[in-house]
């Protein structure tokens, strides 16, 4: 199978351009969904189908494969041959694994977006949209708030009893969601490590889209901090430029062989050893207001990073490896005693037990 070269991508972009303004499409802003892919053959079809089945009529797909070796590219090209009558799509296969999702997304943003793209969304290859109205809900939110430059929705967890390849959930209507206090976008939740911050929940106006940052302790959080900074600059310190959608918009599917969990033990140890330094750097460079530069905020963000890495290591490695990481955690000067004690209790007695509770 030949790779999609730059010239072929340019030809496809011209095809995208020829589609703009056809029929009633001129009445809808073009939405392009960027999908980075790596070794996700069992799951990527459900992801692409959830995009194809959206009822929003003017969409495109920009897919970049990061050097997959499991047959994912062949599966994607077959899907494109069968279904691009419903949604325009371009696919770029990288010859080698870059191993950096923000870089792969940036490649798509620079080289693959149709020229008439006005709105950009992101989806991971092992996640998918909830119901056929998710994109319409995000677009409608921006239409109702023309001053806003981004809309975001809630996530829903994929039912554990349902195979991840299943398509049966995609035609269900969206349900209203009550936003819990720690699931709203705010500087407090950002620095405290709470997790409403996902690429997959966003729709951003292309005119306001910053370069996607690479940050070893969570590129989603770093990207949101840039969006927060744009909003604060334009709206007098307010986050009003980012509006919520009161429905779940994507399914988060947690698979044991995800990219996050494929990180080697050596790399996890290296990342863990850098947590204190990178946490301090995040506070200095991400535009977080000084009022949140507190010992508690630093400890909570550091806690969130240790929790993620201990959880991933406990899922794939023997207890002695988790014990080594706990020894590194004890030396973190940013962790307050209650956060350190919580991690010890959660992972030292039974390292394989994974809990999603947060420290107080």
Topology:
Blueprint: H1 6-19, E1 30-37, H2 41-52, E2 59-65, H3 72-83, E3 88-93, H4 101-111, E4 117-122, E5 128-129, H5 134-144, E6 150-157, H6 187-191, E7 202-205, H7 219-234, E8 242-252, H8 265-273, H9 275-285, H10 295-316, H11 319-330, H12 337-347
Parallel strand pairs: 1-2, 1-4, 2-3, 6-8
Antiparallel strand pairs: 4-7, 5-8, 6-7
Helix pairs in contact: 2-3, 8-11, 9-10, 10-11, 10-12, 11-12
Global structural class? alpha/beta
Unreliable parts: 1-24, 350-360
Task: Identify the strand order in the major beta sheet.
Answer: 3-2-1-4-7-6-8-5
Q: How would a textbook summarize the main sheet?
A: 8 strands, mixed
User: How much of the residues is beta strand, in percent?
Assistant: 5-15%
How large is the radius of gyration?
Answer: 21 Å
Mean pLDDT figure: 78
What key phrases describe this protein's structure?
360 residues; globular; alpha/beta; eight-stranded mixed β-sheet; 14% strand; disordered C terminus; 12 helices
Report what the structure shows.
The protein is an alpha/beta fold and 360 residues long. The chain contains 12 helices and 8 strands. It has an 8-stranded mixed β-sheet, sandwiched between helices. The model is unreliable at 1-24 and 350-360 (pLDDT under 50).
């Amino acid at each position: 199978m030949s790779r999609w070269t730059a010239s072929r991508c340019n030809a496809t972009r011209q095809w995208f351009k020829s589609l703009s303004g056809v029929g009633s499409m001129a009445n809808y802003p073009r939405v392009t969904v960027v999908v980075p892919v790596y070794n996700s053959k069992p799951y990527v079809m459900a992801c692409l189908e959830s995009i194809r089945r959206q009822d929003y009529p003017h969409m495109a797909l920009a897919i970049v494969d990061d050097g997959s070796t499991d047959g994912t590219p062949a599966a994607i090209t077959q899907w494109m041959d069968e279904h691009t009558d419903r949604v325009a799509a371009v696919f770029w296969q990288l010859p080698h694994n870059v191993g950096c999702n923000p870089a792969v997304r940036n490649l798509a943003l620079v080289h693959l977006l149709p020229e008439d793209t006005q709105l950009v969304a992101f989806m991971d290859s092992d996640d998918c949209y909830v119901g056929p109205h998710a994109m319409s809900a995000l677009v409608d939110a921006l239409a109702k708030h023309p001053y806003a430059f981004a809309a975001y929705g809630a996530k829903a967890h994929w039912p554990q009893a349902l195979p991840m390849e299943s398509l049966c959930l995609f035609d269900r209507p969206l349900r209203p969601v009550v936003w819990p206090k720690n699931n709203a976008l705010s500087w407090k939740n950002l620095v405290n490590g709470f997790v409403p911050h996902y690429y997959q929940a966003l729709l951003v106006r292309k005119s306001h889209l910053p370069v996607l940052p690479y940050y070893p302790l969570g590129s989603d959080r770093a990207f949101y901090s840039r969006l927060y900074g744009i909003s604060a600059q334009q709206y007098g310190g307010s986050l009003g430029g980012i509006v919520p959608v009161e429905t779940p918009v994507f399914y988060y599917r947690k698979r044991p062989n995800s990219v996050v969990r494929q990180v080697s033990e050596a790399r996890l140890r290296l990342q863990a050893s850098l947590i204190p330094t990178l946490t301090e750097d995040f506070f200095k460079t991400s535009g977080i207001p000084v009022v949140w530069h507190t010992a508690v905020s630093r400890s909570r963000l550091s806690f969130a990073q240790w929790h993620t890495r201990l959880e991933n290591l406990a899922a794939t490695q023997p207890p002695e490896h988790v014990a080594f990481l706990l020894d590194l955690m004890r030396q973190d000067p940013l962790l307050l005693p209650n956060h350190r004690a919580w991690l010890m209790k959660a992972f030292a007695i039974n390292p394989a037990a994974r809990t999603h509770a947060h420290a107080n």
